[in-house]
Amino acid sequence: MQLGLCLDPATLATLPAPHDFDYIEGHVQNFLLPSSPDEAFAPHLAAQRACPLPMPASNSFLPPGLKVVGPAVDQAALSRYADTAFRRARSVGMSIMVFGSAGARMMPEGWSAARGFEQYVEALRLFAPLAQAQGVTLVVEPLNRVECNLVNTIVEGAEAVKRANHPAVKLLVDLFHMLRNGEAPDDIIRVGPIHHAHLAEDKDRAAPGINGDDFRPFFRALKQIGYNDRLTIECIWKNAPAHEAAPALVALRRQLAEAGY
Q1: What is d(CA 153, CA 159) in angstroms, rounded to the nearest whole number?
Q2: Can you give the CATH number for the domain in which 218 is found?
Q3: For residue 57, what pLDDT is reported?
Q4: Which of 14, 82, 126, 132 sees the fewest Cβ atoms within 10 Å?
Q5: Which residue ranges of the chain lie beneath pLDDT 70?
Q6: CA distance 84 to 170
Q7: Contact 192, 226 (CB under 8 A)
Q8: What pLDDT is recorded for position 237?
Q9: Can you tell me the distance from the alpha carbon of 40 to that of 153, in angstroms, rounded to the nearest whole number?
Q10: How far apart, in whole angstroms, are the C-alpha atoms of residue 178 and residue 200?
Q11: Which residue(s) pair with 23 in the sheet?
Q12: Separation CA 101–CA 56 (nearest Å)
């Protein structure tokens, strides 16, 4: 299992070397800057090309104002934004883009849940060929019910992937959101193939080891379905990652080993 942290190259430079993890996961809006011209992105591209670790994935795909559900979906604007994001992803060697984006997919009050789900799937179908053209896979991230009101569980995420029916659309599992929702580890076995994974502890979205959350049942479920790809710590650091990343990785590796990885 490859382990990663949600960092940009500048923050990575504050961590002591050699790095005891495999990759960094970026932020689409802040690092790829899809809403800005290429000239603004150029320094970020140069920074990643000089970075000692790869950035194979990024999250925070859409800004809150670029809606995929509700009465004011602008498909042309979505296409322009996504095309730029996927093109820049390819330029930094990125192959996974995480579609969480609670604000962009939040259904307005009174909106039909069935229609909202249809619109979400329509957005996946819109983005899929654009992602595929750049060698990127868009992964659906189910978000807990406090943060969003659409596609909350991994079972719902799997259904969205199934209905999108495109090889460039896959499923992500985030153990923080599963814990917050009270989802069972066996749901991972139920939905089957996973393409990317995140985790943080339930309380305060803390790094592994802070509160002692037991991820091992989830890891055993991931192992049972044959998942052995990437696992990103996507947490809220109490202090700087330079102080907290190393013990978090130790705690994470211990639980992975105890789960059979």
Answers
A1: 10
A2: 3.20.20.150
A3: 99
A4: 14
A5: none
A6: 20
A7: no
A8: 95
A9: 36
A10: 10
A11: 4
A12: 19
**Domain of residue 42, residue span:** 2-258
Prior bond of 18 cis (ω within 30°): yes
Task: Give CA angle at 150 (148, 155), nearest 5°.
Answer: 115
3-state secondary structure the chain: CEEEEECCHHHHCCCCCCCCCCEEEEEHHHHHCCCCCHHHHHHHHHHHHCCCCCCCEEECCCCCCCCCCCCCCCHHHHHHHHHHHHHHHHHCCCCEEEECCHHHHCCCCCCCHHHHHHHHHHHHHHHHHHHHHCCCEEEECCCCCCCCCCCCCHHHHHHHHHHHCCCCEEEEEEHHHHHHHCCCCHHHHHHCCCCEEEECCCHHHCCCCCCCCCCHHHHHHHHHCCCCCEEEECCCCCCCHHHHHHHHHHHHHHHHHHCCC
Structure tokens of 4? Answer: 């990663």
Give the CA angle between residues 165, 168, 171 to the nearest 5°: 75
- 8 A C-beta contact, residue 178 and residue 213: no
Asked if 33 and 44 touch (Cβ cutoff 8 Å), the reply is yes
Number of domains into which the chain is organized? 1
For tokens 């991820």, what's the residue?
215
Distance CA 89, CA 26 (A): 10
- Return d(Cα 145, Cα 177) in angstroms, integer: 9
Q: Are 98 and 196 in contact (CB under 8 A)?
A: yes
- pLDDT given at position 65: 97
